[in-house]
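Hey, quick one: can you model this chain's 3D structure?
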Amino acid sequence: MIHSKTVQIKNETRFMYLFTTKEVGKGTGLGLAIARQIVEEKHGGAIEVNSTIGQGTEFIIQIPL
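Sure thing. Here's the predicted structure for all 65 residues.
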């Protein structure tokens, strides 16, 4: 789960195209979807997400050598 402010968001949802927690006109919802596509499909890697309310969110990107 991903925590956005006080709302929990499933990891699968976070990486969906056009998903955003921002107000209309404040974000496109493409950033994480594009990052995931590049890491996984182009480089055979993985993105891991760890999040704790009040502490922050950590993204771990692993790309094979």
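One thing worth noting: The chain has a mean pLDDT of 71.
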